[in-house]
Amino acid sequence: MIPGAFEYHRPKTLVDAVTMLASLGEDARPLAGGHSLIPLMKQRLSAPSHLIDLAGIGDLRTISEENGALVLGAMVTQRALLASALVQVKAPLLIEAAQQIADPQIRALGTLGGNVANGDPGNDMPAVMMCLDASYVAQGPKGMRHIKARDFYHGAYDTALAAGEILTAIHVPIVAGQGTAYEKLKRKIGDYAVAAAAVVLTMANGKVATCSIGLTNVAPTPLWAKDAAAMLVGTTLDAGSVKKAVAAAEAITDPASDGRGPPDYRRKMAGIMLTRALARAASRAA
Amino acid sequence: MAKINVTMTVNGEEVSGLAEPRTLLVHFIRETLNLTGTHIGCETSHCGACTIDLDGVSVKSCTRFAVQAEGSHIRTIEGIAHADGTLHQLQESFRQMHGLQCGYCTPGMILRAWRLLQENPRPSEDEIRHGISGNLCRCTGYQNIVKSIQHAAAALNGETFAEAAQ
Amino acid sequence: MNDMTPTREAREAKLEGMGCKRKRVEDVRFTQGRGNYVDDIKLPAMLYGDMVRSSYAHARVKRIDTSKAEKVPGVVAVITAETLKTVNLAWMPTLAGDVQMVLADGKVLFQNQEVAFVVATSLQAAADGVELVEVDYEELPVIVDPFKSMAADAPVLREDLAGKTEGAHGKRDHHNHIFKWQVGDKPLTDEAFNRADVKIDELISYHRTHPSPLETCQCVASFDKIKGELTLWGTFQAPHVIRTVVSLISKLPEHKIHVIAPDVGGGFGNKVGAYSGYVCAVVASIVTGRPVKWVEDRMENLSTTSFARDYHMRTEIAATKDGKVTGLRVHILADHGAFDACADPSKWPAGFSNIITGSYDFPVAHLCVDGVYTNKAPGGVAYRCSFRVTEAAYAIERGMDILAQKLGMDPAELRLKNFIKREQFPYQSALGWEYDSGDYHTALNKALVAVDYAGLRAEQKAKREAFKRGETREIMGLGICFFTEIVGAGPSKNCDILGLAMFDSCEIRIHPTGSAIARVGTKSTGQGHETTWAQIIASEIGIAASEIMVEEGNTDTAPYGLGTYGSRSTPVAGAAIAMASRKIKAKAQMIAAWLLEVHEDDLVFDIDRFQVKGVPERYKTMTDIAWVAYHSPPPGMEPGLEAVSYYDPPNMTYPFGAYICVMDIDVDTGVAKTRRFYALDDCGTRINPMIIEGQVHGGLTEAFAISMGQEIRYDEMGNVMGASFMDFFLPTAVETPHWETDHTVTPSPHHPIGAKGVGESPNVGGVPAFSNAVNDAFSFLGSTHIQMPHDAWRLWKVAEKLGVTG
């Protein structure tokens, strides 16, 4: 398992990286933690001629709070995320999701940017970001733009990122009083989800005030289950309402058949994970 | 493809060598630096036999290019024993608690445990099991590996290892 | 005697002999990364080989164009079947009496089959060369399902066998048939079924899986043209057999072949066979005149070298209505893949599957096995078990549970009722084995008490009621397995590999100063032979284990042995070690008698010395004796103190054990959690309890993996699915259950030290225990048998079918 040959670049600034990516054309790929890209290259399923390593760009590793949002640099590793007191307080859902990604070594190098940007439906963070209504900052030859996570995923490995653009940061809105949960069913440590569900909700007077649901690895893209979430608003999360919402969420899934199980199983597991995530999120809501 | 000169500090010594950009760090360590204690078991970053310590974190050197490690500080299994040649407590504990059989996963397992005990000097059994979940072992069933790490943790903390009753 | 004289206890402790939890000598190098595995070997001018593999499961190879690959800078040669034909090596014999393509010759018969071998100056160049070898295929119809292999219109897989109605094991009934093997008395068995009160009849499948040691298969071949000598370092469980095979197929004289197995990173049966990569590396070294290294990657390992199992066992048991078994009738359909490359003793095409009567006193039985070809990888190795023993143990242990369910009897009670009794040993089984020893009732009763079996059954009853009332979504299962293994192949009267009797060997040389080297025909792949073999010698002749170096794996220095697999090391080589030790001891006794001026019969051996009977202060230690042997041996006696033993065992050994698994299954997800696993093993005399426990832990973990999800799957096109550690289930420390171990000791009556072997028991016994727990959990809902593997989605499907999912 040896990758094809390529040229290696390690720009020091984001501007250099963007310029490089633009000038080197379609055969150039940015390299973050490498845990999606390098295995693909080793199997020669991906053979870029140029790799632009973003590791030399210091500003991509920061975690801060700006204007009511958590701003996470694209090169923040899962490990760094887990160690951030700020994230623990402001966005515990990210912590819960990151804990369930792969294993300690992979979390040490795997980045948030890589996880959300490459469009692998197996990655956990995309559905979580959709659930949290995060947006991504993309830097390209034409400048910077924000893309909603909910508008970002077009198909497996197909995203709204244009040629020449680099995803540089993630903005996660901070909302007080949310109850959140990420329920992931997997065969073992290191596996992608059979199905996983992210839930963010707020409660008022015993009823759901707001609700958002993301689903992982049960379709060619991560899913934002908008209708299912809407059905729960105003309910007490009684069994009947939950059942209806779960059915609505299951209905938008389109899981692949693989070693994790056939589609009907994975669809049902999306529902079971959602049911469990709803209960846990509600118990955590202020 | 032209080779690039790569310089890094390995086990406290600055080393350099030529590598193609596509040369994996594990191959650089094994083939160029001749440090063959770091093993290759799966090549897809699942087994952890290639685990090394890179700039203070455990990483899988099969999923990293050597050029990415330019300027890094690396520790491999060859750099774990004390300078006088005596075994590190973890190495001793793996031997005492029968934490290895074929020995193939052992360097990666010890490197991971070495970092784990610095991150968390008094890990619970569950924390150990999660802490080494990126390292596969085919021989031991992990039970004695967990025990080895507990044994080492106790010794490093100056405590007596009390084996949990079955 | 003064105060400085060591006590008997101190002398005994210093030996670190049998029964001692001696720490392993191997660990000093392994914990420091100083092992020497094959991939660590680097020779001057060494080349790297990489394999071009078939994308199709069944196709005609129309054209192989190597020209582009040959132009890659660094590529030195590309070898195809045409190259191999010039040295008559396009095909090679298998251990099972079949032949197998080394590289695709006209067609391919399984996905990832070896097609061409690229040799280059670097790993990178070899991989680039592989990318550029162009192969044109014409797809052919594929057989994946063994039940379709022998259909009248099934495609012909093995065109090379056209017209051959006789195979290595008798008549072939169909062009995709390999053999039919039958044992037992069919008319009497049929009669027992005709008269039975109760019968069960179930197709019990044991799915295809893979041993997958952490180190893949690999080798370095170095041919010295001047000397005409070949040195082959490799991941070999049986280096001597490899040397003989290489000699037979390459026509190089055996004395000019040096096979060396250095440290090996796990075997589990994967490293018994001879693979295309080895042959290609050897040929490439001969062709290029340079050393050639070949290292499998994980995908190649999982999809090509040596699958295990793939046995489909229609199992019928006849019994009286009060639960006494009266007959066993089994038909096995054995999927051997594209070539019959099973690693069994030559006369045993289905291994020792006739151990299938298990631990029970069946008056009559009949077993019939049909082996068939399919478009899957060849292999059929004994993955941490003696030959096909784990399949047999699975069928009978599942069968007994199914019978218990049908009778409404407790599965433990049914077993106790049908066990072979202690006084029946040596016991002649209905399918032809002589069980050497056993005490099954004691073992199972001890296990039942240890886990509070009655209490667990009561808890299960309450949980089932609660489940029915809708108070829990969890069901609880109790799995019992009582297995009997047959290991230690084996007696020359019925066991050989390629005509080589399955003895094993040991040579011991005591040095003048009283330390020693022992060389053995086995090869440790993690079992710790360097530690335990020395313990046997220490106890036998009284030299401290720390003063004995054990060496294995070098065919130039070690005596010929058949290697390590099928739990044969302790039963066969362990016996050879004891016998060689006794030869040394006998000579030592003569020397001691001469030195002490008494008759040999007046001496008694005591720990580390011979002493005059009744006069313990008159003695000679083994160290004293060793010096004399080299310095001034008794008149007429040859100097020196060494011995060699080739041990041909009189019988197999029959380890047994009682395993109990407690499991909880979430019916909403199908996720099963092992709450408790208790394993009692009886492997006879215990050489090193620490190592035994480690072996049991490891084997149980493999059993857990196999039963709960580890599988080599194919789609209907013959594409191998999930051949990586993402999909192939190797549990991490998080999923792996906690293991409780226990033992009884029933020594083997025919083995010099009474030992039976243990490394494979936990795999053999573990799988049925897990599967029985799963089946037991669902049984109250009307389920009889659930096929493995028991991964979550399959269990959820069972729950869905039974109408209990949410």
Describe this structure in words.
The complex is a heterotrimer of chains A (286), B (166) and C (806). Chain A has helices spanning 14-24, 37-42, 78-83, 85-90, 92-99, 104-109, 112-117, 125-131, 149-152, 226-232, 239-251, 263-284; strands spanning 7-9, 28-31, 50-53, 63-66, 69-73, 135-140, 143-148, 153-155, 158-159, 166-173, 179-186, 193-204, 207-216, 223-224. With 286 residues, chain A is of the alpha+beta class. The longest helix of chain A is centred in the C-terminal third of the chain and has 22 residues, at 263-284. The radius of gyration of chain A is 19 Å and the shape is globular. The termini of chain A are far apart. With 166 residues, chain B is an alpha+beta fold. Chain B has a five-stranded mixed β-sheet, with helices on both faces. The mean pLDDT of chain B is 96. Helices cover 31% and strands 15% of the residues of chain B. Chain C is 28% helix and 26% strand. In chain C, strand 27, helix 14 and strand 28 form a beta-alpha-beta unit. In chain C, helix 10 (389-407) packs parallel to helix 18 (761-779), helix 12 packs across helix 13 and helix 14 runs parallel beside helix 15. Chains B and C meet through helix 1, helix 2, helix 3, helix 4 and helix 5 of B and helix 2 and helix 17 of C.
Q: Main sheet of chain A: which strands, in order across?
A: 4-5-10-6-7
List the uncertain runs of chain A. none
Mean pLDDT of chain B: 96
Sequence of secondary-structure elements of chain B = EEHEEEHHHH
Query: How are strands sequenced across the largest beta sheet of chain B?
Result: 2-1-5-3-4
CATH topology of the largest domain in chain A: Uridine Diphospho-n-acetylenolpyruvylglucosamine Reductase, domain 3
List segments of chain B where confidence is low: pLDDT < 50 over at least 5 consecutive residues. none
H/E series of chain A, N to C?
EHEHEEEHHHHHHEEHEEEEEEEHHH
Residues in helices of chain B, as a percent range: 25-40%
CATH topology of the largest domain in chain B: Ubiquitin-like (UB roll)
The CATH class of the largest domain in chain A: Alpha Beta
Helix % of chain A is: 25-40%
Which secondary-structure class do the elements of chain A indicate?
alpha+beta
Number of domains of chain A: 3
Biggest sheet character of chain B: 5 strands, mixed
Please describe the biggest sheet of chain A, giving its number of strands, its sense, and whether it closes into a barrel.
5 strands, antiparallel
Give the termini separation of chain A.
51 Å
Biggest interface, chains and residue tallies: B-C, 61 and 57 residues
CATH architecture label of the largest domain in chain B: Roll
